[in-house]
């Protein structure tokens, strides 16, 4: 009997496919409908097992689509390599253009290392190479870490590729689906390839037309311009303060406790719906002014030249806001960039190694987009951050604007400043981006003099008898390219390069601090000042900020765009506890976005998980904000085109969320302290290879620590070692690759080897010595377990299931295989490999490739050592076992729930369906925060059932 499997394969040419395929036309595209026998599946598709992978594919009549259609099932039965299901047809003669490979999947047993790829496979290219012409490096449209879903929910995914005319008829093109990671079953539906036709954007982008009709707002000022100005002149200056109370940071707006929630709009977008967001419970709003940057935006007060400042456009926006919400608390968002006349200061312009000048496109100062001999069109020269001339000119302009605002009275509405370069607010560039301009070389010399003092110290550190502080030419700067392929930089031989990286990092912090001081002095009163880094795990300067070396009171951190998708773990990727200890607040970005219509080349962004219904918006919002509410962190709505404020249902959801956030913020100070501390070493970022996995920790890995069911404090290493009053009370302390330890830090670790404490060391703790290079024996001594070097290789491990610490853990420890096939890597990611060489240690994990012992536990009289031989080997299940083994507090009985908590509130997002037992630190009435339902009248424990992708907030009274 025939069994039917429906697969849609879209194309632009019917000649590509032969019988028995049925072809028909729909919406100017040709669809291929393939009705196949089970046996015919293997005629048209082939299963390829790569690098030891095992598994099978088949048509599944049990797991069906919502409409009852059978699906394609791919089952991976081991944890090695990757399965490829490839369509056999050769598509090399398809027309040139952009193509989309899309589909949706359903899974219930995915692990953190599972990923699915849709690919346009090209002959001669690695199977996992993505097409860089269209896909975003941060987009999961070309690389999708899998998530589990509730029944009947299917996760969409897609991939874009470009076929050039010059490539046609030369190389074989095929489409394929690839499955990577642990054993799992995944079903696919609606797999398709279509020609990506460009289409115009809607003039008024909307969400789903059925569920989310947009509102059309008109300006509805409450006051006239004169009335608004008179009212703001009479009000007290707006204030925003951060105060530490107990273990919490309290956020005060005009002297009253509030949840730190903010609303941000883009510089270029004038549809500022402040009234709507204000009524939805968002109390703080940003307004823009620019000192340099794109002239066309009008916010640039230097657009006409240094001596011809124009304040009219930012003034207009401020007055517009004050006419609608005259009592609003505003933040002055300051954009820095080039300005007329800057083109004549060639020594102050960012340069590459060839001496070409850096430019930004259209004045967008987020990054140097190209290096040219001379700018053209709308390009603008990109300033060197080391340029003292640029800093002073921009600083003078902003000081002049603050004085202007004070003279009009409008400055009373402003509580602080926000610094950015470009619309997205990303003030800093990557630490590895090099500037060879004379200004940067001069700044590097100043940095080295401050660090080393004498040229003799410099030469000793660099192991170079000819080293000098000055760099007369671009070629005299340390060469990053010479060490690019090293697995890890060695301070004994590579200190010059390490210093160059550190300088670029610290130089940016110095720029931010310069502007902060200038503007606060002009303000004449304390100001709430914050800045955004595009990813705190790769920005070690936050160590310096949190250690009190600057006056910043807040840092904004960009939550990765990929986490907009329903079902993914939340991404609280800042070591908030470090900030809390120093009175610095973290405010995370909520770039949720609602659905809009875009051109084909922007569809990879569109597929990142925008909300298309109110329910989806609520699901994504609650999943992310729960972490901020539980930990006393802030969040800000980055509303790219201000879709949120265009929809009444979305505004109601934001308001409901804000009410809960404010209620929790107003409760007594959080006194609960976890028994577990996780210590992140930011300095390690300077030692790992630029094309390899970031050794301190990956975002993918860190998110899953929060799925362990174990509450923990998260510190940067410099702050952890500096806060003696905090260290001693933890039962479990986890060091995430603290590469370099000085003598004092080693003494601290020795003092922690007491009180039956468990110390967990990941990968290379203590391996590096500034003057001696790699010292494995010293590292082994620090960790308490003897290690041996075993060349290089992939570091993923499998647990020794018979050991108590390894029971019921994930089948794979570490994500090295996942990173190997990550979108921007084209070769195996091999790292220095260390194996257990200690007969007194109990092996708990072995390398999948080679089988050597890679993780172990060793018990001493009054403490326990655990070594994990990969920078990301601490899985949620393993962390849960470790905490239980020494009596550390565990909030959820088993891993699988992305969790954050304080003593009166727990936010939970289920990564897999299961029954869970949740425990509070004390007894009380346990309530569902959203519905108000009382789950337990008086208890510290409640039993719940969660579906995959479900978020639950529990509150205790």
How much strand content do the residues show? 25-35%
What is the total tally of β strands? 44
The level of helicity is 10-25%
Number of helices: 20
Shape: globular
Structural class: alpha/beta
Q: Give the low-pLDDT segments.
A: 1-37, 131-143, 199-215, 596-607, 690-697, 822-828
Strand order, sheet with most strands: 17-18-19-23-24-25-26-27
Alpha-carbon Rg, integer: 28 Å
Major sheet details: 8 strands, parallel, barrel
- First-last Cα distance: 62 Å
Query: Roughly what is the average pLDDT, rounded to an integer?
Result: 81
Descriptive terms for the model:
alpha/beta, 20 helices, disordered N terminus, globular, 957 residues
Your description of this structure?
With 957 residues, this protein is an alpha/beta fold. Helices cover 22% and strands 28% of the residues. It has 20 helices and 44 strands. The chain has an eight-stranded parallel barrel with strand order 17-18-19-23-24-25-26-27, surrounded by four helices. A hairpin with a 2-residue loop joins strand 15 (248-253) and strand 16. Helix 5 packs parallel to helix 8, helix 6 crosses helix 8 (491-523) and helix 12 (614-631) packs parallel to helix 13 (648-665). The longest helix has 33 residues, at 491-523. Mean pLDDT is 81; it is low at 1-37, 131-143, 199-215, 596-607, 690-697 and 822-828.
């Amino acid at each position: 009997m025939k069994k039917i499997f429906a697969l849609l394969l879209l194309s632009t040419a019917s000649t590509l496919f032969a019988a028995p395929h049925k072809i028909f036309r729909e919406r100017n595209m040709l669809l291929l409908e393939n009705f196949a026998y089970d046996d015919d599946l293997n005629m048209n598709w082939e299963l390829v097992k790569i690098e030891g992978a095992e598994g099978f594919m088949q048509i599944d009549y049990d797991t069906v689509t919502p409409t009852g259609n059978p699906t394609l099932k791919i089952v991976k039965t081991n944890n090695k390599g990757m399965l490829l299901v490839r369509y056999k047809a050769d598509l090399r003669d398809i027309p040139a253009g952009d193509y989309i490979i899309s589909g949706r999947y359903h899974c219930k047993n995915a692990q953190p290392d599972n990923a699915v790829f849709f690919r346009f496979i090209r002959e001669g290219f690695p199977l996992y190479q993505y097409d860089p012409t269209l896909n975003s490096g941060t987009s999961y449209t070309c690389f999708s870490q899998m998530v589990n879903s509730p029944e009947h929910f299917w996760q969409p995914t897609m991939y874009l590729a470009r076929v050039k005319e010059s490539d046609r008829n030369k190389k074989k093109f095929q489409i394929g689906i690839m499955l990577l990671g642990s054993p799992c079953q995944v079903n696919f539906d609606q797999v398709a390839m279509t020609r990506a036709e460009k289409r115009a954007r809607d003039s008024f982008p909307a969400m789903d037309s059925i569920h989310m009709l947009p509102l059309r707002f008109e300006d509805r000022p409450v006051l006239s311009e004169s009335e608004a100005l008179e009212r703001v002149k009479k009000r007290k200056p707006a204030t925003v303060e951060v105060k530490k109370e107990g273990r919490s940071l309290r956020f005060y707006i005009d002297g009253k406790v509030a949840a730190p929630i903010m609303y941000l709009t883009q510089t270029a977008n004038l549809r500022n719906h402040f009234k709507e967001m204000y009524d939805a419970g968002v109390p703080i709003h940003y307004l823009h002014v620019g000192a340099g940057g794109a002239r066309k935006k009008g916010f640039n007060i230097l657009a006409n030249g240094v001596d011809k400042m124009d304040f009219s456009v930012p003034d207009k926006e401020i007055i517009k806001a004050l006419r609608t919400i005259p009592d609003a608390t505003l933040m002055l968002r300051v954009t820095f960039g080039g300005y007329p006349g800057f083109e004549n200061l060639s020594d102050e312009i960012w340069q590459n190694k060839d001496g070409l000048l850096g430019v930004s496109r259209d004045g967008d100062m987020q990054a140097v987009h190209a290096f040219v001999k001379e700018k053209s069109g709308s390009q603008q020269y990109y300033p060197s951050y080391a340029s003292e001339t640029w800093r002073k000119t921009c600083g003078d302009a902003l000081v002049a604007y603050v004085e202007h605002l004070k003279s009009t009275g409008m400055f009373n509405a402003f509580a602080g400043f926000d610094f950015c370069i470009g619309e997205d607010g990303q003030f800093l560039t990557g630490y590895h981006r090099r500037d060879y301009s004379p200004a940067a070389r001069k700044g590097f010399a100043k940095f080295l003099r401050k660090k080393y003092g004498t040229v003799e110290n410099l030469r000793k550190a660099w192991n170079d008898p000819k080293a000098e502080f000055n760099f007369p030419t671009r070629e005299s700067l340390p060469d990053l390219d010479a060490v690019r392929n090293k697995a890890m930089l060695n301070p004994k031989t590579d200190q010059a390069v390490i210093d160059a990286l550190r300088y670029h990092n610290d130089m940016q912090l110095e720029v931010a601090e310069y502007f902060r001081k200038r503007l606060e002095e002009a303000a004449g009163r304390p100001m709430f000042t914050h800045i955004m880094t595009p990813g705190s795990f790769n920005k070690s300067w936050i160590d310096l900020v949190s250690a009190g070396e600057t006056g910043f009171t807040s840092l904004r951190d960009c939550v990765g765009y990929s986490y907009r998708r329903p079902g993914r773990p939340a991404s609280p990727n800042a070591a908030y506890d470090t900030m809390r200890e120093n009175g610095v607040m973290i405010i995370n970005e909520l770039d949720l976005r609602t659905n809009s219509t875009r051109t084909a080349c922007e569809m990879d962004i569109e597929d990142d998980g925008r909300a298309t219904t109110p329910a989806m918006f609520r699901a994504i919002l609650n999943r992310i904000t729960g972490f901020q509410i539980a930990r006393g962190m802030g969040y800000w709505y980055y509303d790219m085109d201000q879709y949120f404020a265009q929809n009444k249902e979305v505004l109601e959801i934001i308001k409901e969320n804000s009410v809960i956030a404010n209620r929790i913020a107003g409760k007594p100070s959080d006194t609960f302290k976890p028994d577990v501390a996780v210590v992140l070493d930011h300095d390690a970022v300077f030692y790992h290879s630029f094309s390899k996995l970031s050794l301190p920790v990956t975002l993918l890995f860190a998110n899953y620590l929060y799925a362990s069911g174990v509450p923990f404090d998260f510190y940067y290493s410099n702050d952890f070692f500096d806060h003696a009053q905090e260290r001693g009370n933890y039962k479990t302390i986890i060091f995430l690759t603290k590469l370099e330890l000085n003598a004092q830090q080693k003494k601290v670790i020795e003092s922690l080897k007491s009180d039956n404490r468990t110390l967990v060391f990941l990968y290379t703790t203590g391996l590096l010595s500034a003057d001696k290079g790699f010292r494995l024996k010293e590292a082994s001594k620090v960790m308490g377990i003897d290690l041996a070097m075993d060349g290089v290789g992939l570091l993923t491990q499998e647990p020794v299931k018979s050991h108590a610490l390894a029971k019921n853990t994930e089948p794979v420890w570490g994500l090295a295989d996942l990173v190997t096939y990550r979108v921007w890597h084209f070769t195996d990611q091999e790292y220095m490999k260390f194996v257990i060489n200690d007969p007194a240690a109990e092996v708990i994990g072995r390398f999948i490739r080679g089988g050597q012992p890679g993780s172990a536990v060793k018990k001493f009289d009054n403490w326990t050592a655990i070594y994990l031989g990969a920078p990301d080997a601490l899985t949620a299940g393993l962390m849960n076992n470790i905490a239980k083994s020494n009596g550390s507090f565990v909030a959820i009985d088993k891993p699988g729930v992305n969790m954050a908590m304080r003593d009166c509130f727990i936010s939970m997002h289920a990564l897999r369906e299961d029954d869970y037992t949740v425990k509070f630190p004390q007894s009380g009435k346990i309530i569902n925060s959203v519905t108000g339902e009382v789950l337990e009248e008086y208890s510290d424990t409640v039993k719940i059932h969660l579906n995959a992708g479900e978020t639950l907030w529990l509150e205790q009274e």
